[in-house]
Amino acid sequence: MNKKLAALFLSSVMAAGIVGCGESAAPAQTSSSNTETASGTETEAGSEGGYSTDSITINIWDSNQQAGLQTIADEWSAKSGVKVNIEVIDWDNYWTLLEAGASGGEMPDVFWMHSNTAQMYMENDILLDLTDYIAADASVNQDNFYEGVWNLYSSGGKQYALPKDHDTIALLYNKAIFDKYGVDYPTDDWTWDDMYEAAKAITEGSNGDVYGMAMNTSNNQDGWYNLVYDYGAKVITDDHKGTTIGSAEGKAGMEMVRKLLTVGAPQSVVAETGTDSLFMSGKAAMITQGSWMINAFYTAENHADYAWAMLPYADTNANGACDAGERYSAYNGLGWAANANVADPKACYDLISYFCSEEGQKKQAELGVTMGGLKGVSEDFAGAFEGMDVSAFVRAEEEGDLFFRPYTRKTTVWEDALQQQGGFLDAWQNPSDAALMETACDNAQKIIEDAIAAE
After folding, report:
1. What's the whole-model pTM score?
2. Is residue 365 over pLDDT 90?
3. What separation in angstroms does the CA of 96 have from each of 36, 315, 327, 438?
4. 422: exposed, middle or buried (C-beta count within 10 Å: 0-12, 13-18, 19+)?
């Protein structure tokens, strides 16, 4: 990549923020392909000399996944004779190191890709083209993976990563706080209005000492995106060329967000403390959170008080039941990718293929690392956390609807703009003013449309 292109690329990547599958905690994951095809063959890949390298370095950003992924990698190493070393780099430094590598520095052999940055990496020849390897790998069938995650890592008819996982969103609540203020626990029959009433009762019952709920409006995937879709709108249309956030349905969803913010933690408090810290310190009774964060709460001091429910739904037809299209959960997924200039691309692909094999993906779920990028392998995930029922994340897709985390070619351009003045910032900071939210939806419609037009 020439220096001018590298500079443009790096400036674009550096704008990416942390969203979903982020730095904190998605349990480890596994991968797909059997011994014969994922690893070439035992004879080809073994110590007899099937590969030109004897070690592969992997970079990830989540320490909670390291042990589980290393277990799976070690299984592949035992078959292939190639040692795998998984290194954890914190989110910010992770992208800094990849950016440096993209402009001529040293890159890891294998690493994670994220929806915020994938398009720029794919377009600039930084990722190994896996297309031919996949075509020769009978164990990899595109139809068996979650469509949104597979498509995310495709560009120009080529495939640059295999889906590592997928995630869903659920409602986390503190039973002790609900008991203290005499409020019934959330159920899967809750609407967003029910959540509002419960949050209001706790906030008012505690005289503001405890917030009934907390939402970080900067975290769109595990927060307000879901309400937009529940009420019938789309942040980004399916063709990635438009938005309906400024429609009546979009405004209805964001109006519900506004109502929730009036009985929740102020955004100034959230910005200073964070929703997870507010919840674990007993200052917030409810938050919505992604499956990648389960382990953080499972290992928390007061985890016995914590429980999960499915996200509430929007009863848009007022029939008192959750119908199709009224309860959505965003889903996203990381991709296993390799350095385009890696010394032994076949070894790296075979490792990725093993991570994404049915065997690897099932082990990932069993270990509680995360749910799979392959369909139908995540049943054991719900039972991986003894004493904590996390089935709400699996039921989100079995009993509700999923939408893939919205993206376009330059997602961070409009995502960042929505967080600023002229976007939703004023409405989020002043939720008592309904007119601000309606205006913000109109502004958001234009921000997204203009950004897409400029892509």
Report:
1. 0.85
2. yes
3. 37, 44, 37, 38
4. middle
